[in-house]
Amino acid sequence: PYKSWLMVRIAFAVVALLGCSSWAVAFVSSPTTSALRLRGDAPRCQISTLAMATSSAMTRREAMAGIVGTAFFVSTKSASAKDVGDGGLPPGIAEFQRVLLSKKQWNDIGNRVQNGHGEMDEKEWQNVQGFLRKFYGAGDDMNLIAKAFSKDDQAAVADVVKSFHKAVKAIDKPAAARNWEQFMVEHKQIADYVQNFLDIRSQKKKQASAVEDI
After folding, report:
1. In whole angstroms, what separates CA 151 from the centre of its chain?
2. Residue 72's pLDDT is what?
3. How far from the centroid of its chain's Cα atoms is residue 137's Cα?
4. pTM of model > 0.90
């Protein structure tokens, strides 16, 4: 009886040892996945250690994500809205750049109509009319830029812009009729208005008047 009892105890011990060893091997091979697949209860101390390690890893990952997210937000905000001292454009510069771009686009349209009017279909002429609506806004940019000028120059720019706005509205008619010859006549007038503004800004007209007076 004693031997039988001893053999039973040894058998139970071997089974328990084998069970723990198998669980340990599974845990080492894949800690998270194997632990979730185990049907039996693991030792409480090992479960606590796994939970602490997982929680610690999650905390580190969340902290790093927060730091990266904050850095991205700060860099995006600083890039999208800068003060003049941080590299942003001072007042009037953005408007002046738009005027120059509009002038280039207007010259390109003139070259296209002058040299390629025979190839232009209705859709292309409609695109020209669409540009005129945007081009009208260049006059508003001129007035904004002129706020930094003297009173006399502001008045001169106001006259130029008034004529510019009127001419841009008028040229829509030959564009709609595909009258390329009349379009080019009015195109030159509008180009001259833009150049007049640039001359006022660069003080060329004042310099020319001073030379004539001498």
Report:
1. 38
2. 32
3. 23
4. no
